[in-house]
Amino acid sequence: MNAATEQQGQQGLGETRVFNPPAAFTANAAVSGMEAYNALVAEAERDYEGFWARLARENVDWQTPFTRTLNEDNAPFYKWFEDGKLNVSYNCLDRNLTNGNADKTAIIFEADDGTVTNVTYKELHAKVCKFANGLKSLGIKKGDRVVIYMSMSVEGVAAMQACARIGATHSVVFGGFSAKSLQERIIDAGAVAVITADEQSRGGKQLPLKAIVDEALAMGGCDTIKNVVVYKRTGGNIAFTEGRDIWLSDLVDNQAAECEPEWVEAEHPLFILYTSGSTGTPKGVQHATGGYLLWAALTMKWSFDIKPSDVYWCTADIGWVTGHTYIAYGPTAVGATQVIFEGVPTFPHAGRFWETVQKHKVTIFYTAPTAIRSLIKASDADEKVHPKSFDLSSLRLLGTVGEPINPEAWMWYYRNVGREACPIVDTFWQTETGGHMITPLPGATPMVPGSCTLPLPGIMAAIVDESGADVPNGQGGILVVKRPWPSMIRTIWNNPDRFKAGYFPEELGGKYYLAGDGAIRNKDTGYFTITGRIDDVLNVSGHRMGTMEIESALVANPLVAEAAVVGKPDDTTGESICAFVVLKQARPTGEDAKRIAAELRTWVGKEIGPIAKPKEIRFGDNLPKTRSGKIMRRLLRVLAKGESITQDVSTLENPAILEQLKETA
Ligand code: WTA
């Protein structure tokens, strides 16, 4: 378990304040009151497959209805609704042309500079069809992989939907990843095309995208790539490779605004999304079509209580899973109006979120605890950017995602953004789970700051010990899910063995899905509190980072002999990255150390992306190791926190180096 989340989790455990959903909210909620919640839970327990079959029929339009709900024959390679056929883009767009939503605004696009573009469902449908026809004209077909390396834009969402429409499997790579990270993902996915923009506009700056794609492709190994489609966002100067590169407008302008959807099997891979695990290489989490869509639509109703009149805003990036399920697919599947924001929370001022809520009369707002914590700081320093300086009366529901929220930040959000009138859904889930797993239901669950409360109906979450046995409430353990659920990860792309061993470990009996988080349930309420990762995965500003990945990047530098990376609690980002480094040359000190540390930070930025740059680097002649040569990360975590070591260090080979590692370069 890593230190920051452990600490935050524990803060949550002592929490006794309870906040009930407002009565008026409950009265109109999709799941109204705890009795309604309990009835759904009971239905799932009584007839697990029947429960999911009913929901899949009610929430998804099937071109060929399924007759088999769940196939467990080849567990843990579960199949859901396998003989059904459908198309995700049909469900998200065409459905909205015939149900009265055609002229409804699907997307309110708020650009970095404040320019607003509204797109109706009819317009989005036409855009996606043209895009899909354009992709087809390049020879892209069902089963091909397409990498999307895009800014936050209507075109980014359209690119995903267009792939879904023709049965191509997309893999979105976050625009903050480096050329090297992009290249690795292109190769692993075997992608035939990259969709990108010339540049992205964030915080008043123009940042390159196409240039990074060029760099990635020039690194070699990407021979599967035939085309690069470029959306002109800023008009910045970019290089063009004849025959390979094509402007999006040239690709789509003369295409028909209709495109027959490719009807795919429910298990057809909708997307691959790379995420960090506890080894040096990221894993391609592969999701299926039918079960994923069901979950995206259903959780929009259950957790967000989405109504036709809502203006919904999720501040995530399409490069992360939250931007997949709760921007590209969930909101459109339920015909919602949503804000899509190109910029950053602090530009042109740290009240941008609140100003945007006021401007578009946002009713549901979903963001990350890190953003909340940084905006608390900013509004403490400057009243003008405090939420109280804006009219936020349109808000009726708030949400958080990606990391634990500490009770103080929860309270601030509740009081200052929600005016003590909005429920907060603290949604626990993962790239692998496809959508929300444990979360309050806004019209039902009494909320406790810092707790994600109870599993959604049908989600058999539990806490077990290292042998897979249940632990009693009040006793911490390992979070598992005991039964498969529709939107679960299907496999790791190109690596089914890693999927099986990593997520369904034999030690726990081989049947439970292992989330990778520790958790504890409250003795009285049974509420879950997540206590942090149990593997070597850090959560920095809600971004998942593998310590091994950062270590591999560091040791790839010619100066570095050895490196160990640990997380350190951070007031704003939850955790921050602290790297302990041994150089091939003598341990540097003073200005030398500062210069090399800066060089290594830039290096990691190039190897992985700026989000992986260590905040601190400390140099030693060696790392603390046991006599058998194992690095003692426990000690490094204590050192990172600046605490003194009280543990027994008698097994340590080289106790003297602990002194050296106290100092940050
Ligand atoms: C953490 C993001 C506490 C957790 C959707 C998980 C959370 C990892 C919460 C997944 C929450 C996510 N409370 N911790 N509400 N939500 N996490 O794959 O450690 O980027 O395993 O998915 O984030 O991160 P991922």
Automatic annotation (TrEMBL):
Residues 37-92 form the Acetyl-coenzyme A synthetase N-terminal domain. Its EC number is 6.2.1.1. It holds the Pfam family AMP-binding_C. This is Acetyl-coenzyme A synthetase. Belongs to the ATP-dependent AMP-binding enzyme family. It comes from Pseudoduganella albidiflava. One of its GO terms (cellular component) is cytosol. Its cofactor is Mg(2+). It catalyses: acetate + ATP + CoA = acetyl-CoA + AMP + diphosphate. The keyword Transport does not apply. Acetylated. Deacetylation by the SIR2-homolog deacetylase activates the enzyme.
